[in-house]
Amino acid sequence: METAKLEFLRGTLDALILKALVWGPLHGYAITNLIRRQSDDALLLEEGTLYPALWRLESKGLLEAEWGLSNNNRKAKFYRLTPDGRRQLRREVATWEAYAAAVAKVLEATQPPLAEEIR
Amino acid sequence: METAKLEFLRGTLDALILKALVWGPLHGYAITNLIRRQSDDALLLEEGTLYPALWRLESKGLLEAEWGLSNNNRKAKFYRLTPDGRRQLRREVATWEAYAAAVAKVLEATQPPLAEEIR
DNA sequence: CGATACCCCTAGCATTCCAAGGGAAGCTTA
DNA sequence: TAAGCTTCCCTTGGAATGCTAGGGGTATCG
């Protein structure tokens, strides 16, 4: 499958990963799959994007990692949300929603503002 | 006024600028004001963000620039959409809407996918 | 036994947003 | 008239981070 170019990812990637872990601990590969599934194949994380992001989130104390065994009995590193991670997720979702709403206002406007309003 | 941090801007900035010019030619300062107004003060473009972006769009042939006089009789550079710019705007709006919908599916999910689906 | 799926990681590149500067011209206000 | 604010334009350097392109290893299936 062709991997889509996701220039937008910046700013939403952390929230997507944190959200994926709300359902319980997952290893990296499963995080990618979850995000792909729930977005109906629209969001395909590259491994070179995912793993540095996981490390980043862990180093900020938003995730905790532990080695374990996957369903297929393979060695896998499981990530779980910390309380800080949960709080951060709430903040990021709120920020994202506000931003998306603001962009929508501009992009979907059907009338210009009054000339005086923009000088 | 405190300027909001807009990490998300990446990927939407071009669309926002192109959309601002749908209503007619504007100079840089007015573009900022229009986007601020129509987003209810949520989107505040920094000048160091705006002017390089305008140059970028012009160099791609999506905008054309011309010096003129603003309402206040000051020298100002007016930008206008080219036909290519108009096409690009349509594309970018569509891409943005698809991306925003995909992110919303993940961030606003109230149930995890089945375990088998993410392996 | 070869191919495929599962799993982890890194180095370097490219893009681009932002902070922080600088400049100039007109208007207001004390 | 001097100070200061607003309107307008622009550039430089730094920081962040997603992607490309590599590396590795293990289980399973045909």
Average pLDDT score of chain A: 92
Shape-level CATH architecture of chain A: Orthogonal Bundle
Number of folding domains of chain A? 1
CATH class wording of chain A: Mainly Alpha
The number of helical runs of chain A is 5
Instruction: Indicate the multimeric state.
Output: homodimer
Going by CATH, what is the homologous superfamily of chain A? Winged helix-like DNA-binding domain superfamily/Winged helix DNA-binding domain
Global geometry of chain A: elongated
CATH topology description of chain A:
Arc Repressor Mutant, subunit A
The fraction of residues assigned to DSSP E strands of chain A is 5-15%
Described by strand count, sense and barrel closure, the largest sheet of chain A is:
3 strands, antiparallel
Total beta strand runs of chain A:
3
Largest Cβ-defined interface: A-B, 46 and 45 residues
| Alpha-beta classification of chain A | alpha+beta
Distance between the termini of chain A: 49 Å
Rg for CA atoms of chain A: 18 Å
- SSE ordering of chain A: HEHHEEHH
What is the share of helical residues of chain A?
Answer: 40-55%
Are there runs of chain A of 5+ residues with pLDDT below 50, and where? none
Strand order of the largest sheet of chain A: 1-3-2
